[in-house]
Amino acid sequence: MTSSSFGKSRPQHDVDIVVFGGGGDLARRKLVPSLYDLFRDGLVPDSTRVIGVSRSDISDDGYRDMMASSTREFTPEHEFDSEVWHRFAQQLSHQYLDVGDIGQIRSLGKLLRNHGTPRIFYMALPPQLFAATCRNLGEAGLITPETRVVLEKPIGRDLSGAKRINEVFAEYLDEHQVFRIDHYLGKETVQNLMALRFGNSLFEPLWRRGRIEQVQITVAESIGVGDRGGYYENAGALRDMVQNHLLQLLCMVAMEAPTSLNADAIRDEKLKVLRSLRRIDETNVRKTTVRGQYVAGAIDGAPVKGYTEEEGVRSGSDTETYCALQVDIDNWRWAGVPFYLRTGKRLPDRYSEITLQLRPVPLALFGQKPEDLVPNRLVIRLQPDEGIKLRLMVKGRGRQMKLEPVNLDLNLAHAVRGRPLSAYERLLLEVYRGDPTLFMRRDEVEAAWSWVDPILEGWAMQEMGCKRYVAGTWGPSKAVSLLDRNNHVWAEDAP
After folding, report:
1. What domain range includes position 344?
2. I need a surface site. Which of 238, 297, 363, 486 has the fewest CB within 10 A?
């Protein structure tokens, strides 16, 4: 891990945090509430200053009131302390600033403490502003050896865009100063995935081809695009979710054991997985991928609009709000094991989980047909409730030797003591400490785009439009046939 002037457990130094996009949805819902939680629990110095930067004409007091309202809304009631908030709010301020104006960027320097004070610049901005903001910070002399810069996904919208952003950052910062965030890597259960794999000898002999038949990774959302229609039109589900979140989860499942918990040792293993992904392009994109877009339907009994009726969406748009893929990893451990990735909006439920299905027993001994024996399945639930479930076959009640499935269900919220850190709390704390383990390295980002770009090109070359699905259903019917040819079904359809 990179050594850090921030300290190993609780950072002791003064720290200035500048949040570009400080009035936006991410700052209101996640960043400021998470910083408040860390402040309340004594995990960051009391002298931490947070400067929200935006193009809104708002006073410091107005900004504090706005953030107080948001923090109350997005913090459990019993965890919000008005007295603690009052102390935290004294360190909170707002600055009107256009990131494209280097003169205004220079004026920001007057608000920061001296060059020896660690600085965190958090870019909660559209990716097209990353490079210019970094360049202006550098030319204004605001980047120091103690500076750390956090980038929200997506890093660009294709490989060439990601490289351009990374090259600008490399001009002004060393790699260990750049924290490319994927909040899924901060989730408690993703951390437990490593513990489950590498801390328990029980699973190591099973975690491979020959034992595992298939792997499914699902990130399902019941919400639509809301007020993000304009952004989504330029992204789509593949760029927005698969290129980062789902590929990172796939890497965590499929990677080999690192030589240590050193940041680069872990990221080296993830990079090997990305480089082992079988190419999907115009020759096989129809066979291995599904694009979908929701139309009007109902969620929890309430009617909802279709995608093209959402604000900011072009009439007749063919942007995908659903994406499913069969991914193959051509390496020694996973050859022949299909990984099914799936994400979508306006699905019936909101959850993220990883399912590993083991191969069936070779012989049915109990008077049942082989197809009546439900395969063992390990399910790792990431949200909304974090837990691990193992499905086994046991004898049912009565005289007959008839098997039925049962679940060993571990709810991590109940099993582990203490308040778990939210994903953003954990990640912000790691930025404080200067530990990049839970963040994406430059070559990881570029390897992911190298795999995704041919899919996007294949869709265009094959003129592969979106299949429509009704909001409140599990996506296009074609997603069923994606698995059916391997005699597999999606987890919610499995017995």
Report:
1. 194-367+441-488
2. 363
